[in-house]
Design a protein that fits this description.
The chain is mainly alpha-helical. About 45% of the residues lie in helices and about 10% in strands. The radius of gyration is 32 Å and the shape is elongated. The structure holds one RNA strand of 77 nucleotides.
RNA sequence: GCCCCCAUCGUCUAGCCAGGUUAGGACACAGGCCUUUCAAGCCUGAAACACGGGUUCAAAUCCCGUUGGGGGUACCA
């Protein structure tokens, strides 16, 4: 039978990067095994529901290259009020793939469980439940539902009055399951709460919905975060009660922040959208995430893997047991590696939106500007770690610069008079050079350095500051050539004036 | 509190299952080379088996305990 896995986000916000790593494992496993990767929307929490995050989640997956074989279809997306539903509709034979579209199914299963004695109705008020929990805590007992309604006569609560349906967990014995990563995990039934399966608003809780959907969608492997381990016995009980075949469970370790701190949904954990905005390449992020908690092993020392290589080598059974800390340092390095490996034209295309967002070049990029960019890219390719870095590194090509203050011009240790001389002589040289190509500029400037008896650092540093306004810039001769003679001479003159004014 | 999971350089990890390694690699860090700045590249360095007991000729590897970390404990997922 074909492997079927799923990512089932709840549209209450954008998934944090730890969740995304788990999605990567799911996707890699599906592709490796030639199976299906399913996207299911778990919108059963009506309080925290934010429909607008559905397309954001989908957009993020697409950007990362995590395509899904089955997922919400056109009509259900339209009913959810998603704009551009056509753009995201995939559909599939086991839909609908949005849980709010499957309500009758959950209710039916819940009623079945009540009928066979595996579940019961409960109309305890939230206040009473809270009181019970507080009392238990005060006594130093684990907070659990006291099963008040479990022992009521079967007809004590009418199906028509507001109530929830709870799982009737066996009071004794133990529930166990085999986990791909952890091996056998054992829970005493006495410690398992009578979990609510169907809420009073008619929506299922995660526990009911996940079991029902995974069953009917023929999911074979449940690959999810470690945080689900404690609720897995409830799911196992449900599978047993319903007589359904169990999927393979695989609980992958969580991802923490660099300090080892918790990576909770709202703790500023970065989302795919944020990484994208910060100038990370999707292939770099994918590569990095795949290596967070997994390594090919067998003495393999390669760390840069193409998408195809990751699929080929990924092994779910080799995923680590211990949680992994996210490292921006390593991601940055990897992003730089990927940026350097791009063809200049490809890099140019990816850089374009960042230059445009910064207002440095017009939105439809004119052909002339593109030619300039084509000359700039090779100069900066090995100097940026993020696509966003290009803005600060190249802005002086597109905007006028304020003449640098004297102290910056004199940073190389020259006195004002000497610096003025350097600038004046440089202007003479550059005014008379036959053409303004990189190779034509360099020899006479080097000759000038020798003639003046100064160091290249002193002279070129001064020219750099004068023409770019920065102490750090792309390689000087290429930069001057792209700037062109007129602007270079003007900036040199302006700098000279700065020193004179002094 | 109770339940569950986890433990190799600062970080990601290889090695563990099938005991014998100078415990390997990468990021970051330090020093050097190259060099017009910054990068990139190259070379070198520092850096780990959490602790305590077993088992064994031999333990990072197997067992137990301790400590530490993480997760769960909702009509959230």
């Amino acid at each position: 039978m074909s492997v079927r896995v799923r990512f089932a986000p709840s549209p209450t916000g954008e998934p944090h990067i730890g969740n995304v790593r788990t999605v990567v494992f799911n996707w890699l496993f599906a592709r490796k095994m030639g199976g299906q990767f399913i996207l299911r929307i778990e919108d059963t929490d009506r309080v925290r529901y934010q429909p607008e995050t559905i397309p954001v989640i989908m957009e993020g997956l697409r950007w990362l290259g995590l395509d899904w074989d089955e997922g919400p279809g056109l009509e259900e997306l339209q009913r959810a009020g998603i704009e551009d539903a056509e753009r995201y509709a995939v559909g599939g034979p086991y839909g609908p793939y949005i849980q709010s579209e499957r309500l009758p199914l959950y209710r039916q299963v819940a009623e079945e469980l009540v009928a066979v004695g595996w579940a019961y109705r409960c109309n305890c008020s939230p206040e009473r439940l809270e009181q019970v929990r507080q009392a238990q805590r005060a006594r130093g007992q684990p907070p659990m539902y006291d099963r008040h309604c479990r022992y009521l006569p079967p007809d004590a609560i009418s199906p028509d009055e507001p109530h929830v349906i709870r799982l009737k967990v066996p009071l004794t014995g133990r529930t166990t399951f085999q986990d791909v990563i952890k091996g056998e995990v054992i829970f005493e039934n006495a410690g398992i709460d009578d979990q609510v399966l169907l809420k009073s608003d008619g929506f299922p809780t995660y526990h009911l919905a996940v079991v029902v959907d995974d069953h009917y969608m023929k999911v074979t492997h449940v690959i999810r975060g470690d945080d689900w381990v404690p609720s897995t016995p409830k799911h196992v009980l449900l599978y047993q009660a319903l007589g359904w075949e169990m999927p393979v469970f695989c609980h992958v370790p969580l991802v923490t922040m660099p300090g080892g701190k918790k990576l909770a949904k709202r703790e500023g954990a970065t989302s795919i959208t944020e990484f994208r905005k910060q100038g990370y390449l999707p292939e770099a992020l994918l590569n990095f995430l795949a290596l967070l908690g997994w390594a090919p092993g067998e003495g393999e020392e390669q760390e840069i893997f193409s998408r195809a290589e990751l699929i080929e080598r990924f092994d779910l059974y080799r995923v680590n047991r211990a949680p992994a800390a996210f490292s921006y340092d390593k991601l940055d390095w990897m992003n730089g590696v990927y940026i350097r490996s791009l063809s200049p034209d490809d890099l140019l295309e990816r850089l374009l939106p960042f230059w445009q967002d910064a207002g440095l070049i017009p939105a439809p990029c004119p052909p002339q500007t593109r030619e300039v960019l084509r000359r700039i890219v090779p100069l900066i390719q090995e100097r940026i770690k993020h696509l966003t870095d290009v803005v600060e590194l190249t802005d002086f090509f597109f905007t006028e610069i304020a003449p640098p203050p004297a102290e910056e011009l004199l940073a190389q240790g020259l006195d004002a008079e000497r610096a003025r001389e350097v600038l004046r002589r440089t202007r003479e040289v550059l005014a008379n050079v036959s053409d303004f190509g990189e190779e034509t500029i360099e020899p006479p400037l080097r000759a000038l350095v020798a003639e003046l008896g100064l160091t290249t650092r002193q002279v070129f540093g001064l020219i750099r500051t004068a023409t770019t306004g920065k102490a750090v810039s792309p390689p000087l001769f290429g930069t001057l050539s792209i700037l062109e003679r007129e602007r270079v001479l003007a900036r040199l003159e302006a700098a000279e004036a700065q020193l004179t004014a002094r």
